[in-house]
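Protein Entry — a single chain follows
Fields — amino acid sequence, structure tokens
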Amino acid sequence: MTIKERYRNVLDWFGREMPTPKTELHYDDPYGLLVAVILSAQCTDKRVNMVTPALLEAYPTPYDMAAASAEQIYEFIKSVSYPNNKARNLVGMAQKLVDDFNGIVPSDIDSLLSLPGVGRKTANVILSVVFNQSAMAVDTHVFRVSERIGLTKNSKNPLETERTLVKNIPPEMVPSAHHWLILHGRYICKARRPDCLNCGIKNFCAYYQSENH
């Protein structure tokens, strides 16, 4: 199977089985999603979704959060991973949104990357989910699943994976593909024990083929 055939088969299957994939983070507006994605680093979406309603009720706009202290934010998010760092980043992010962007979440990667707590993965999530841009956020699931399926080969880092995927996936499908790979990694192609028995793309998967099935 050529790499083009593998991409086509995998994307066709996901397109049929999961035509409208969505993030599992709950949000009402771009600012709410940005807060949630910053909190989700090395933390489960389920945990973040438990924390964000009260946090965003207390600080519903960047202006509200910019006026808060990290200590105040910490009280709302102390059950997530790295709460001290994230509290500082959220306040810094909100202050920069207010000072540089009139409180509006920007729609280009360089501006997003200038915000405290926002790395390339977080920026790409915002571009993809909020602005429907052809941006591929590579988290641990996307990195692992892409390599296992054979969409990438010997990728050294998330940026290399991102570039390979974006090069091979039609631009209009990239936002959906981001969710497909994350959800597949979360529920089927798990890190320790991939559930190959219940995997719809196993016949196109390099790992499955290499296991001599």
Summary: The chain has two domains: 3-20+136-210, 30-129.
